[in-house]
Amino acid sequence: MSRRAPTVWIVLSALALALLVVFLVWPLFNLLASSFATGKGTGQTGWARFFSDAKYLTAVGNTLILGVIVTASSTVIGVTLAYVTARFNFPLKALVAILPLTTLIVPEVIAAQTWLMLLGNNGIVTRSLGNYGIDLPSFYGWPGLIIVMTFIYYTYVYIGTLAAIKGFDAQLEEAAQSLGTSPGRSVLHVMIPVVMPAILASSLLVFTLVVGNFAVATLLGHKVLLLSVLTYITFNSEMGSDPIMQSTLASVSIFIVAVTLFVQRWVVGRKRHEITQGRGAAPTRLTGLRSALLAGAASLVVLISVLPLLTLVVGAFTLTRGPVMYWGQFSFASIERMLISAPDPLLNSLRFAATATAIGIGFSVIVSYLVVKKKNFLTPAIDYLAMLPLAISGTVLGIGLVITFNTGFLAMTGTASIIVAAYVIRRMPFGVRNASSTLYNIPSSIEEASISLGVPPVATFFKVVLPVMAPAIAAAAVITWTTTVAELSASVVVYSAGLETAPIQIFRLIDTGLTGRASAYGLALVVMIIAPIVVATRFFKIDLFQSR
Mind listing the pLDDT tens digit for each residue in 393-411? Predict the structure, then answer.
């Protein structure tokens, strides 16, 4: 590859960097700058108020405690289930192995809603047990937050750990056992150190997701002060927003996630073990009581995981009268009302998500190609900024966009464009990561051969490189779509009247107690998520997880 990049690639790099600076760096800079401003009524900066008010410190403390508890519980469940699935054969193993992935297609707002339908004050289980004189403690607050977030996020640990265990060379354990080490000790002292980086990476990802969680924290938090909820309340207060404090709280969230990611890189780097890829261990077939107990325990975890999806389907076809749901009496009224009387949220979700996916994938492909194949003095900054949204919660990003584009020549607040912009930025890393992984595997000699035959560099990209990238681009598009159409935390901050999306509508309906109608929108949203996954995997044979 030539050391001097053609002018066209330099120009594209400059344009890509400019867009990242305008729509990502500028909003974040405005957030941080605003936190150091002095309030007119208080005479204090946002940081001075933050450290002097116990409410804010309590919210940060509660968020960190919740993050640690959920991360620990998710890690225990995820690692245990991954080890059991990888190392043993037992009844129902096929379902146990695949069903946890359903948590990835159920948006968090729907998961919170369906858990409330089961264990809320008027939930199915709560009322059923109440008829027998058994009163369950309130599901709101710490119990609900910990349970729901654990069964949402343990799947991330499960996937990462399962891949690591299956890729571990079982001959290392066999060698240890041949020297007299017991099977249990060989697992602890040989396998665990090797797969530990994957476990730590997945666990710290869970921690960052808990810190930035908005839907579950808002619907189930009750009197538990949490940073994400307090940030949103400060932004959306009926008494008028507090720009300085909303920026300060958003900056605290960014700082926590940034420190977590730094710790992740440091710990994983120190704990890395390099081994030659070998054969994985053959699963041990269990029989008798051990098989039954293991199958029962694993199936229970998976059953709890899929309960939200099952409850959602039933709730969408249950007869309702306002907030009252008549379980066992089926009706299409909620579905009909959604499709006939109020389809706009669904149409908005389709429109905004489709636009954002098209723009985001196009931009991601160009950025990936520049970073991997056309390196120049600008691409290191592009590479870093393209991954930066992974460290920013949707609420923080939304507030930054509103502050930045509320006025001026790029005034977008109150329009659909700011929603699309939030979606593109928030999900851009998915497209960049998928496209880059494929580009690393494309030899530069293919492009050079095309150029040597007289095809210009840009034409070579479209005729040679892009067709090879097609499967990865399709996978990135599906993943971007499924996460974008379910986006709540950013869109609930930037949307305006008439631009409500399906997740926002679900959030509002749950808040007013109309869970039947919320279930109908939830079911439609799940169908919108599953449909492209089915088409991509069944008809186009695309492996959506090949580059993740």
Answer: 888 999 999 999 988 788 8
Task: Tell whether the model's pLDDT for residue 547 goes beyond 50.
Answer: no
pLDDT band at 517 (very low <50, low <70, confident <90, very high): very high
How many residues would you count in the chain? 548
Architecture of the domain defined by 58-310? Orthogonal Bundle (1.10)
Sorted by sequence, the CB contacts under 8 Å of residue 166 that are 6+ apart come out as 86, 280
Task: Give the Cα separation of 202 and 210 in Å (integer).
Answer: 13
Which of the four CATH numbers 1.10.3720.10, 3.30.450.40, 3.90.226.10, 3.40.30.10 does domain 1-35+317-548 have?
Answer: 1.10.3720.10
pLDDT greater than 50 at residue 97: yes
Answer whether 1-35+317-548 and 58-310 agree in fold. yes
Note the pLDDT tens digit of each residue in 272-331. Answer: 554 444 555 667 776 677 777 877 888 888 888 888 888 889 999 999 988 888 888 899
Q: Residue 189's pLDDT band (boundaries 50, 70, 90)?
A: low
**How far is Cα 41 from Cα 284, in angstroms, rounded to an integer?**
69
Q: Show the tokens assigned to 354.
A: 């489709």
- Tell me the DSSP string of 56-85: HHHHHHHHHHHHHHHHHHHHHHHHHHHHHH
Q: Which residues contact 269 (CB under 8 A, 6 or more apart)?
A: none
Residues contacting residue 111 through CB under 8 Å, at least 6 positions apart:
103, 148, 151, 152, 216, 308
Tokens matching residue 80: 């245990």
The burial class, CB within 10 Å (0-12 / 13-18 / 19+), for 415 is middle
CA 16/CA 362 separation, integer angstroms: 11
Q: Is the pLDDT of residue 271 over 60?
A: no
- Domain coordinates in residue numbering, the chain: 1-35+317-548, 58-310
Distance of alpha carbon 45 from alpha carbon 52, whole angstroms: 11
